[in-house]
Structures are given as structure tokens and as C-alpha cells.
Amino acid sequence: MEVMGSSVDDVPLTCVSIKRRDERKTLSYLPNRPPVDIEFTDLSYTVPQGRKGKKIILRSVSGLFRSGQLTAILGPSGAGKSTLLNVLAGYRYAGATGSVLVNGQPRNMVQFQKMSRYIMQQDLVQPHLSVHEAMRIAADLKLGSELTKKQKLTLVDEIIEMLLLVKAKNTKTSRLSGGERKRLSIALELINNPPVIFLDEPTTGLDDLSSSQCISLLKMLAQGGRTVICSVHTPSAKLFAMFDHVYVVAAGQCVFQGSGADIVPFLYTVGIECPTHYNPADFVIEVSSGEYGDFLEKMVAAVDNGHCYCWSQRYTGSASHCKIEANDPTEDDHKLDFSSSCWQQIRTLTCRMLLQMYRDRSYLYLQGLMYLFLIFIIGSLYYNMGFDGAKQLYNFGFCYTCIIVFLYLPMLPVLLHFPSEVQLLKREHFNRWYSLRAYFCALSIAKLPLQIFIGTVYVCSVYWISNQPLELARLCQFLVICLLIGFVSENLGLTISSRLDIVNSIFIGPVLSVPLMLFAVYGMGAGTTSIPIYMRVLMCLSYLRFGFEGLMYAVYGNDRSMMPCPPEEIYCHFRSPKTLLLETGMENSNIWVAVLALTAYMIFFKAMSYFLLRWRLSRHRDFAALNYVGRIIKTHFNFTQQHK
Ligand SMILES: Nc1ncnc2c1ncn2[C@@H]1O[C@H](COP(=O)(O)OP(=O)(O)OP(=O)(O)O)[C@@H](O)[C@H]1O
């Protein structure tokens, strides 16, 4: 393959030249954004490996990605394409060194995040919504009151038309084809016209036609003045010809940068000839992965590891620096803060969550059926025992059962659902759809109505079937305590699943519940003096204990009168409610203490889940200690290694 002594001009160019339709379309109401050039110099990225080791993924690469150009990052698998994209987009930059300049100025991460959007490889889109609904909600979140409702609808319709989604406008996102889903992901990010768009492998999983549509669309966006950068896996010759700028990575280094048409002459200068009719994209990847011998060093040297911003056949010798001037600094022009207020975000997100809950009927029915099943089982087991002086130990069990129900039923759905929701949250939050605070408030509000309704139906039913004292005050106290236990459990579930994936969450949640249940009843009947102080502290750590005391107070406290005993019973030890409270050590229980303690636990777990989520969403070292603990847990105790 090596060709020595031939002139570059002799090299046949095999890139296909394709005549493109002029697809430049204008969108009404899109805010104008100034052009943005991204220049990076000596960028390195390492990840910790093993006890003290490090793995170098990017090795001092440089480059320039200009506005108005569609840039492709190519390279063999594992070369570092996604990593380069992640570092440039700012999705991961702890561990990166080197400089990234935005229009010639050092990148201000907060500013840059406002002007760039990152469309990741997995097309995560909100479930249970149609394309039009998803777009409308995204417009409400991203544009706030910047545009009127009518203008937003016009803009949404225009983007839907531009991205060839008209036929799928009313289709649910879960039923979209791969190509439609990819186009929807792009459409959602186009709403507030970001000047910089990063895409990780936008054509993976698409057929030739969909890939071609997708790249044409990106080309059109770039022609509109945006900086569009995407990593691509072995594009066809037709797709390859659509890219304005090609950046090839191999083993974490830059082996070519410039126009796609220059790849063949470039390879020729390093001593390897591309066979006629061979796709240059395939060929450069094969050469980079060492299939034709070791040309890596020569290629890296020829483009000076990316310092040569645009290799061209006009420049022959190695390290030819065909520098291009970047745009003038225009960062101040980017007034890209959230257009919607926090309150607008909360309202839109709450509506979205409620709509999704309503649409997820199968889950609603399943939840309703589960509660009905429990009402039936618990109602049958404890039927009419609440007012029978001889059955009060059974009734004690009834109260305990209610606690277990309100421990598991609100917690398990969260452990199952939330880890996958966090993936969506990560994408939307990174692309600045809304603030975490707004999301968290909406999450807390949207879950309330169903939980209160279903909990009330359950409590009233079992309370009545088991014949507990029919006094409104006692019923209300019982209900409030049960609902509060449910809220705490739900927030405990959020705390667990905000940092772990589904498998780990579903394991940790029930395991953590065991000590909580044990300490809820530990030492009952033994009297407080015989229980060591540390055990009493541990007992207080179980919010279920406070809940249990609250329920017992609701049923037996507040001077409840003696209960009748069936005539066949000779001795009814617990017919006096005070006796039961005394023997279980709950004679001093107080409803207010229970309510306050449960509320404090609820706030604690809510705050914990909020901070854990913030930590998960943060890409820098704000939470150094937590990051260290997280790394230890991931390395040594993780049951799956799937989540990032
Ligand atoms: N957090 C990490 N810890 C250890 N190794 C990592 C980590 N992230 C990436 N790598 C390694 O870095 C290399 C580059 O990964 P990257 O995902 O950037 O490759 P890629 O070029 O996008 O590959 P592909 O085309 O197959 O997606 C791979 O060998 C990968 O295993």
C-alpha cells in the first residue's frame, strides 16, 4: 500500500460529490444567536483506574470547530470520540486538562452550557406524550413568556415540518421509529435555537435513508450558522461527502483534521494509497486502527495532533499549520438564561407529570388493584377485631401491618421508576430545559394527589372493616400518620434511587427496610430501662417507630374507654387500652411527637435526595467528598456497572 515519491496531485479522489437541495429554511420567532467557534488546545482526559492508576483517554489533542460547518468526529471504536464530545460539550470535564476557547475566549462553562445542546446517543424522550405534546411542553419550558402561546405553536409546527415529523405529529413517543425518535430529539433541542449542537452518533441504529435524512438536516442546521459537531461510526461515502469538516481520532490522538476530500491526499502523503472506489471514511478508520501497518505516529505528526486546523493538499510537509482565525468574542451577546421563571417551570413540569401519570393507565390500574387486594386481605384477617377486648394483640398486629403497607407501597414504585427517569432528567437538565429546584418541586407536587387519594381510600376501608373506634378525630389521626409514613417512605425511595440504578435500588431499598421494621418494634414490652442507650438511639432512627407510636395513640390513646369482651372469655387482659399501651412501652406516646418526627424525616429525606441528585447532575468537583465515596461504592459494592 505504501506509495513513495508520487505527487499529491496524482492521487485519485474517491469522495462522492453530491448535489444537495437547498434546504435552508427560516423559522419564525426563533431568537437570533451569534456564531460560535470552538477551539481546543492540548486537551487531555484521564480517568482514575484501580487504586492509584490512571487511564489516559485523550492525549493532548487540539482542533477548531467552526460555526456554519457540519463537523464529523470519526475514528475506530474506543478511539475517544464520545469522550472528546463529552469534554467539549462540558458533559464530563473533571479530569480534563488543556484549554477550550469559545470565540477566542476561555470557555466559561456556565455561559457555554447556555449556548450549547448535547444530543446523546440514546434517544431518551418523555414517555406517554405525543410528538406535538412533547414539543409544546418543551417550548413552554424553554421559551417561557418570551413568545405568546400562538407564536410558540407556530414555531413548534414549523420545526415539526422542517424535521419531517408531520405524519408522526400525534404519535406517542414510545411508538416512533428510530429515525423519527432521533429527529424528535433534535427537534426538541432546536426550540430555542442553540448556536452549538453536539450529537453523539446520531446515525447509529438508523437505516441508510434515515441516516441520510438526519445528516442532511444537520447540514441544513449548520448552514443556518450553527456549529454542529457529531461523532459518527463509519459513514457511507454519500454521508461522508456531506460533512464540511472531518476530525479523525485514533488512540486518543488526532490523526487528521480538515475537509473530507483531503483525506485521500493526506493519506498519500503519509505513505498509504486509498484504493479507487473505496470509501475514504472507511479507509481512514482502517488505517487509524492499524490494519495496514503502523501509520499512527506519522499521521499524528502530519497534523501536529490537531494543531493543524485544516490539513489541505496545498500544504504538504508535516505539521503544516493552516490556522484559521476564530470569530470575534461574542460571549456577552449570549443572553441565554432560562426564559421561563421558576414558577412557570414548576407549573409546566407538574402538568407534564400529571398528564403522564394519567396516560399510564395500566400502572394506575395495577396500583389500584394492589391496594384493593390489600384491603381485601387485611380486612379479612383483622375483620371486626378493633372493638373486641380479647383481640387487642391481633389489633396491635393490624397497626403494624398498616405501617408495613405504607413503607413498601409508596417506596417500591419509586425504586423501579426513578432511576430511568433520572436519565431523562440528566439530559433535560444538562440542556437547560429547567432548574433542578423546579423539577424537584414539580415531582413533589405531582405525586401528592394520587398518594393522598389512594392512601385515604385504603385507610378508611381497613379502619372501618376492622372496626376501629368510629370517632372522626381518631380516624383523622390514623390517616395522617399513615400518609406521613407513606411520604417518608417515598422520599427514602427517592434518596436511594437518585444515586443508584434500578438493580441496586431495588436491592438496597428492601434491605434497608428490614432494620427499620425491626427497630419499629424492638424492645416492646421490655421497658425502657433495660434497653441500652445506643439501642434506644437506633430505635429513634427508625421513622416507622414514630409512626407506630402515632397509630397506637390514635387507636388507644386519649383516654379511650374500656372495650367490651365476649361473654365466653374468662379473662380479657387488654380490654383496657391503657394496659396495652403500658405493656408495649407506649404509654407516653403522643400524636404531635409522631407527626413532628415523621415530618422531620420527610424533610430530611427530601433534602437528601435533592442533594444526591445535584451531585449526580454536577459535572465538576463541587462534591469532592461525595465523589470519593461514590467512587468507592461503585468500585467495590456496585452490583451492576451499567449506570454512569
Ligand atoms: N470512565 C471510564 N473509565 C475507564 N475507561 C473509560 C471510561 N470512559 C471511557 N473509557 C475508555 O476510553 C476509551 C474511549 O472511549 P469512547 O467512548 O470515547 O470511545 P469511542 O471512540 O466513542 O468508541 P465507540 O465508537 O465504540 O463508541 C475506550 O477504550 C473506553 O473503554
Outline:
The protein is of the alpha/beta class and about 650 residues long. Helices cover about 50% and strands about 10% of the residues.
Share of helical residues = 40-55%
> Low-confidence runs (pLDDT<50, min 5 residues)?
1-24, 317-321
Q: Which molecules other than protein and nucleic acid are bound?
A: adenosine-5'-triphosphate
Distance between the termini: 42 Å
Structural class: alpha/beta
GO molecular function, one term: ABC-type transporter activity
Protein name: ATP-binding cassette sub-family G member 1
Keywords: ATP-binding, Membrane, Nucleotide-binding, Transmembrane, Transmembrane helix, Transport
Main location: membrane
Q: How would you sum up this structure, described in words?
A:
- The chain has 644 residues and is of the alpha/beta class.
- The protein has 2 domains: 254 residues, P-loop containing nucleotide triphosphate hydrolases (Rossmann fold); 262 residues, no CATH class.
- It is built from 21 helices and 10 strands.
- It has a 6-stranded mixed beta sheet, sandwiched between helices. A 4-stranded antiparallel beta sheet has the order 2-1-4-5, covered by helices on one side.
- A hairpin with a 2-residue loop joins strand 4 and strand 5.
- The longest helix has 39 residues.
- The structure holds adenosine-5'-triphosphate (ATP).
- Adenosine-5'-triphosphate binds next to strand 2 and helix 1.
- It is found in: Membrane.
- This is ATP-binding cassette sub-family G member 1.
- Its main location: membrane.
- One of its GO terms (molecular function) is ATP binding.
- It is a multi-pass membrane protein.
